[in-house]
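Structure first, sequence second, as always.
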């Protein structure tokens, strides 16, 4: 294909498999807060101890060592709390291993790029597919030093992975590093200490099907009463039977409350987690449960009603509606968002933009939304883009991971499917084939709008390219057949279109429009001949 890489096939993204809702624990008494802090601190210390033991096991971990850790924790808490702690520890260790593998891959990509650029002559120009050499000898020297540093770092991480060592911080490494930059974070040491301790607490319980209200450790009744099974060392703080403590707060989930109530009334498993937001000084309870895996609709069914192609950018979504034949319908739509500020503000901006997009998709009557399967893991290294800091910040700011998770879950609630397509050449080919032809006096087309059309057509299974130009006049086979839609086995693909002969002159055409009758020519040369011309014989005289 002339250097163009092979495109991956489009597919329907599976729907979400879990649900989580949150509500505030309001009107807590001082005794309630004291008990919650004591439980969180005690179980958090047990979780830290268990995580240390799991990291010490490394690759020697097995079901027997897992059971041994659980038996050690049971006398200090309970069997169910010990199971929840060991499961959370296992998940945290597995997440650290995945992050370690991603870090190794990122270091390897940087090393490969540095070696490539150092191997080129100084000042060698780059291409669209590969970076060129460094611009000066001093820059070449600094990059050679960085290559040595990355190679040493890569070797150390690979050695850790082979030995089964991971670097895990309960409470978060970012919050730990904030301790050394309190002035920049605008925090006092007491405020940081309070946040650090709250993040290391553990007040959570896994759900159990068949048990009363779906959870024996943290129980929530249909009327909103919350009670906690206290660990054995804190059983003297109980205010109810069987070592339980009932909170004075009542909860009512405004979002998915009916679905949550149906589950607990049927004694189906619901997991709970209680945490403290130190910035607001509020306690929250999060309920989560699993859903049965929703079978995705076939790709052809998703394409039957048309498609909305969405191009993801750093500050907006560019969307275009296409019918099932791949033709653009109407004008482009843009859904802006602002990713500056706090994490909560960025998350709210993404939710608002996705909500507007999904509502428009429902109004348009389509069954699916086409989006690029973006992954910038190897694209945002500074070794590849060098001084292009703004471009690295741009692609780093695109919310690829959060966007896919949010869009899939929100679209599933509205009965919409998500079709993921290969992102290769969508902006390039969209701008080349669709940007200029769709510009009118009342419509402006950007490159991102054209990319939305390219994404939608690829999701529908059509080629991005529009109809090609007709062949040259001298040879019809020199440039191939007229359209790219015609397959190589289609009969008559290189022929001319037959004239319409089943209508009278000046009558309506098959599509209902009238054609103008041919007018008489004003020149003698083109006038129809009505007289037979006969040449007389000439008499030659000598």
């Amino acid at each position: 294909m002339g250097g163009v890489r092979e495109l991956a096939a489009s597919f329907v993204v599976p729907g979400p498999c879990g649900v989580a809702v949150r509500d505030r624990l309001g009107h807590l008494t001082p005794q309630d807060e004291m008990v919650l802090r004591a439980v969180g601190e005690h179980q958090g210390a047990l979780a830290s101890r268990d995580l240390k033991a799991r990291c010490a096991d490394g690759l020697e971990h097995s079901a027997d060592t897992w059971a041994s850790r659980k038996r050690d924790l049971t006398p200090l808490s309970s069997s169910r709390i010990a199971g929840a702690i060991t499961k959370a520890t296992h998940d945290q260790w597995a997440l650290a291993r995945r992050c370690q593998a991603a870090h190794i891959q990122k270091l390897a990509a940087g090393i490969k790029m540095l070696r490539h650029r150092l191997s080129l002559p100084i000042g060698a120009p780059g291409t669209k597919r590969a970076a060129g050499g460094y611009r000066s000898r001093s820059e070449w020297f600094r990059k050679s030093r960085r290559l040595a540093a990355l190679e040493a770092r890569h070797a150390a991480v690979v050695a850790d992975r082979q030995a089964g060592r991971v670097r895990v911080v309960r409470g978060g490494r970012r919050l730990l590093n904030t301790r050394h930059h309190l002035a920049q974070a605008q925090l006092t040491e007491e405020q940081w200490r309070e946040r650090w301790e709250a993040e290391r607490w553990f007040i959570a319980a896994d759900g159990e099907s068949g048990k009363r209200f779906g959870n024996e450790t943290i129980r929530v009744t249909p009327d909103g009463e919350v009670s906690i099974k206290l660990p054995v060392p804190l059983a003297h703080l109980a205010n109810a039977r069987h070592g339980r403590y009932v909170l004075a707060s009542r909860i009512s989930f405004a979002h998915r409350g009916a679905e949550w109530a149906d589950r607990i009334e049927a004694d189906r498993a619901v997991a709970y987690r209680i945490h403290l937001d130190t910035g607001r000084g509020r306690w929250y309870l999060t309920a989560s449960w699993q859903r049965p895996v929703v079978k995705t609709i076939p790709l052809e069914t998703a394409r039957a009603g048309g498609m909305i192609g969405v191009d993801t950018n750093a500050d907006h979504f560019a969307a275009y509606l296409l019918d099932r034949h791949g033709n653009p319908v109407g004008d482009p739509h843009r859904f802006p968002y602002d990713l500056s500020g706090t994490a909560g503000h960025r998350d709210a901006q993404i939710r608002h933009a996705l909500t507007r997009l999904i509502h428009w998709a429902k109004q348009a009557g389509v069954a699916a939304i086409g989006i690029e399967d973006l992954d910038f893991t190897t694209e945002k290294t500074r070794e590849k883009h060098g001084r292009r800091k703004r471009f690295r910040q741009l692609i780093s700011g695109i919310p690829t991971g959060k966007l896919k998770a949010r869009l899939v879950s929100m679209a599933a609630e509205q009965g919409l499917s998500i079709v993921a397509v290969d992102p290769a050449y969508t902006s390039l080919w969209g701008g080349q084939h669709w940007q200029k032809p769709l510009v009118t006096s009342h419509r402006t087309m950007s490159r991102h709008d054209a990319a939305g059309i390219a994404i939608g057509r690829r999701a529908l299974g059509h080629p991005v390219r529009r109809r090609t130009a007709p062949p040259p006049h001298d040879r019809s086979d020199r440039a191939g057949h007229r359209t790219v839609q015609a397959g190589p086995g289609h009969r008559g693909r290189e022929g001319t279109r037959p004239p319409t002969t089943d209508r009278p002159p000046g009558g309506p055409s098959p599509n209902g429009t009238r054609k103008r009758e041919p007018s008489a020519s004003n020149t003698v040369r083109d006038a129809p001949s009505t007289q037979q011309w006969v040449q007389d014989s000439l008499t030659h005289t000598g």
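Margin note: The longest helix spans residues 79-119.
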